[in-house]
Design goal:
The chain is an alpha/beta fold and 299 residues long. The chain has a single domain (11-298), classed as Rossmann fold (3-Layer(aba) Sandwich). The protein has 10 helices and 12 strands. The chain has helices at residues 24-40, 58-70, 86-98, 109-115, 136-144, 155-160, 201-211, 226-236, 267-272, 277-283, and strands spanning 11-14, 43-48, 76-81, 102-105, 150-153, 167-170, 178-181, 191-193, 216-220, 243-247, 250-251, 297-298. The strands form 5 sheets. The chain has a 3-stranded parallel sheet with strand order 1-2-3, with helices on one face. Strand 9, helix 8 and strand 10 form a beta-alpha-beta unit.
């Protein structure tokens, strides 16, 4: 466990990406953050994770603000926008490079998929490590030719730099933490910065949580495996380790989790149909109001 101690009041954050409309799963996560912040008498922050400029749009960020205000959620101002903090991620990447833990990767997604012999916890093809074998002169020549590249973490070297037994404090949706063992090796040589991204999800959220002083990360169980990578990066960058509270997911009618890409019903649609914020809160288990017949499943 990281020896760094986070001082001051508890700090929580809700961190949506403006690449689509919020749905009931986002509402559940935001309300979980609100509840924990109230229980701990802590601060509640909003972070807009908008590094993917291709998919993230101002209209979606405006819709996020409307939805959260409609639900009655209040966050400290101003919100942090990842797109405004490329320098913070570059500094973290430089710190990892100074430890000889970063190498350039010139492989396309198709090349990664063809050479992969397994899958990471998200189901994406595991990287074979092909570019790890490039010499410094070979990599420099390809960079000089203007070839697009990503920066990857040498996972084997990185794991060798941290304690053999790496854990995080996992609360789930309760109040008593357990020590959860991190398994970053399951992810292979992760991308730290993409061909067109200042930082990957893993690097950006780790840096953001530290810079915002986040003490308690409240997010869905679909991200629990990613916490192994985040704990590894915290150790490598000498950053504090928050407590983690991975909550249940809201399920669709077919039993799968809600998702923007599957066009799950949005909060805006519920609002347009006359559903009240109190009904949304009641249906998700927050408050004793009338859910208006709205039923959801959590798992």
């Amino acid at each position: 466990m990281s020896s760094k101690v986070l001082a001051g009041p508890p700090v929580l954050r809700f961190a949506p990406s403006p690449n689509g409309l919020l749905h009931l799963g986002h509402a559940y996560s935001a309300l979980c953050n609100e509840r924990v912040a109230e229980e701990l008498n802590g601060r509640l922050l909003l972070r807009i994770e908008d590094l993917d400029r291709t998919r993230c749009k101002p209209r979606y960020e405006a819709a996020i603000a409307d939805d959260l205000a409609w639900l009655g959620l209040r966050f400290e101002a101003p919100a942090r926008r990842q797109s405004e903090h490329a320098g913070d991620y570059a500094a973290a990447l430089d710190a990892l490079a100074a430890q000889d833990l970063v190498y350039p990767c010139f492989c396309s997604r198709a090349e990664v998929a063809r050479a992969s012999s397994g899958r990471d916890p998200d189901g994406a093809p595991l990287y074979s490590g092909a570019c790890r074998a490039l010499s410094a002169s070979q990599a420099a020549a390809r960079i000089e030719r203007g070839e697009k590249r990503a920066s990857r973490l040498d996972m084997g070297r990185a794991i060798d730099r941290v304690p053999a037994r790496l854990f995080w404090r996992e609360f789930g949706e309760g109040s008593t933490p357990v020590a959860e063992a991190a398994e970053p090796e399951r992810w292979g040589d992760i991308v730290l910065s993409g061909r067109d991204l200042a930082a990957s999800y893993h690097l950006s959220v780790t840096v953001d949580d530290a810079l915002q002083g986040v003490t308690d990360v409240v997010r869905g169980r679909d991200l629990i495996a990613a916490t192994s990578v985040h704990r590894l990066l915290q150790e490598l960058l000498d950053l504090p380790a928050p407590g983690y509270r991975h909550h249940r997911l809201v399920l669709d009618l077919d039993g799968t989790k809600l998702a923007k890409r599957r066009h799950s019903p949005s909060l805006a649609k519920f609002r347009a149909c006359g559903v009240s914020p109190a009904a949304i809160r009641a249906a998700l288990g927050f408050g004793d109001g009338d859910s208006g017949g709205l039923a959801v499943a959590l798992s």
